[in-house]
Amino acid sequence: MKLYNTMSRRVEEFVPIVPGKVSMYCCGPTVYNYAHIGNLRTFIFEDVLKRTLMRAGYSVLHAMNITDVGHLTGDGDDGEDKMEKRSRETGKSVWDIAEFYTKAFFRDEDALNIIRPDIICKATDHIQEMIALIKRLEEKGHTYIAGGNVYFSIDSIDDYGKLAGLRLDDLRSGARIEVDSNKRNPKDFVLWFTNSKFANQAMTWDSPWGRGYPGWHIECSAMSMKYLGEHFDIHCGGIDAIPVHHTNEIAQSEAATGHTWVNYWCHGEFLLMGDAKMSKSSGGFVTLPVLEEKGYDALDYRYFCLTGHYRSQLRFSYEALDGARSARRSLMEKIAALKAETCPAEKVGDAAKEYMDSFDAAMENDLGAPEAVARLWQMMKDSSVPAADKLAAAYHMDGILGLRLDKAEAEEKIGSEDDLRLLDERTAAKKAKDYARADEIRAELERRGYIVKDTPQGAVLQRRV
Ligand code: AMP
Ligand code: ZN
């Protein structure tokens, strides 16, 4: 298995710390609002990575956090807590907001057929672990207190910024004007806020430094170490986490332990809306329920994500999503037809095996999903592969794609009400031996993008791809 490692900026052979096992931590959602489909692209990428590791024979221990405190609207400890802001805007308690959007997040994940992480950990349940880690940093001289807050001093380590390739000189000279004059270095970051700018902060805890709340970065270090140990295999997130969040996670984790924390850093590229990153703050974001209200299946979006490589930007548009939908539907129809005809082979022949192997090879080469999907389609169209082999191989591939191919139903009705009414009209015309009218209707349905198929169970529509 090969993976691109942001730390080395190279595709590397993946070698786990413990043979046969993989420990993987993924930064989870900040639950102050619905996840947008850009966030979900990152979670789909992580799910595909996990499934590919499992296919490669590893047993994967996957932990993900739920950020319900400490994530400020600005990355440089400026702005206000996203949860608190939402609470103020809606009049609901932060706890109710967290619960509501956590549920909404897992509903989306389930609809997208994302395998639940083995460990789901909430930041607010791990305040003591965070305090313990900050104490450890304090004992080793990596912190200072200013204006009531506890800061991590990036000058106390000598490799700050190695993930993003940041140079300290550049950081100093290029730093934007800092709002926080307590910082000795503009890139220092808060571990614990006591002197909150927000008098009404609802979520506060006692600590050795006074009542307050944690900075955002410390949660991921504390929780990942608790569940995966102080040295684990893979840490994932979106690329926006590289310059600040993951950079700071590494600084504090390695300062505390004195050794390498994570071996492979894997980052998913952005989903774009127009030319810009889709984001909650810019307002123009789309959620999964919005797509579903428009008649798309969540899996149309999953399929859409699989058509792009995770390290390339992917531009969202409804036209592109329509393309993914018709391709996925056509795939489901083909699988349904195979299911109606046969059962999956227990042992496949050479032709199907070759497709399976090249599919796995594409995925195990830094998750080449677009190439892998192309292999699936090649096989589906290859008439030399027996139906039972085809079905078994498609299910094998779906173990990674996660498109629920096994749920394809032969009786799935394709076509809108109006299309199906026309199809009935054609059947009636044929019965009345009005073949001219029947042909006319067939031509109309073909114009609408269908193939009309006469089966022993009656006429059905298939979508043309
Ligand atoms: P958040 O809920 O803001 O903490 O973000 C959850 C995940 O989504 C993080 O890993 C982000 O890096 C990622 N993310 C944010 N915006 C996008 C985007 N437009 N495309 C892909 N991933 C994103
Ligand atoms: Zn994180």
Describe this structure in words.
The chain is an alpha/beta fold. The chain has three domains: 2-268, HUPs (Rossmann fold); 313-407, Four Helix Bundle (Hemerythrin (Met), subunit A) (Up-down Bundle), CATH 1.20.120; 417-463, no CATH class. It is 44% helix and 16% strand. It has helices at 37-55, 82-90, 94-111, 127-139, 168-174, 217-228, 242-257, 288-293, 298-306, 318-341, 350-364, 369-381, 387-401, 417-431, 435-447; strands at 2-5, 10-13, 21-26, 59-66, 119-122, 143-146, 149-152, 189-193, 213-214, 232-238, 262-268, 271-273, 276-277, 314-316, 450-455, 458-463. Strands 5-4-3-10-11 form a five-stranded parallel sheet, with helices on both faces. It has a four-stranded antiparallel sheet with strand order 6-7-8-9. It has a three-stranded mixed sheet with strand order 13-12-14. The longest helix has 24 residues, at 318-341. Mean pLDDT is 91; it is low at 172-176. The chain binds adenosine monophosphate and zinc ion. Adenosine monophosphate (AMP) is lined by residues 27, 29-30, 38-39, 41-42, 67, 237-238, 240-241, 268, 270-271, 277-279. The site of adenosine monophosphate (AMP) has 18 residues, from helix 1 and strand 10.
Summarize this structure briefly:
The chain has 15 helices and 16 strands. The protein is an alpha/beta fold and 465 residues long. The site of zinc ion has 3 residues, from loops.
Count of structural domains: 3
Query: Which CATH-level-2 architecture of the largest domain?
Result: 3-Layer(aba) Sandwich
Shape: elongated
Count of DSSP-assigned helices: 15
What's the CATH H-level superfamily name of the largest domain? Answer: HUPs
How is the quaternary structure best described?
single chain
Beta-strand content bin:
15-25%
**How far apart are the first and last residues' alpha carbons, in Å?**
33 Å
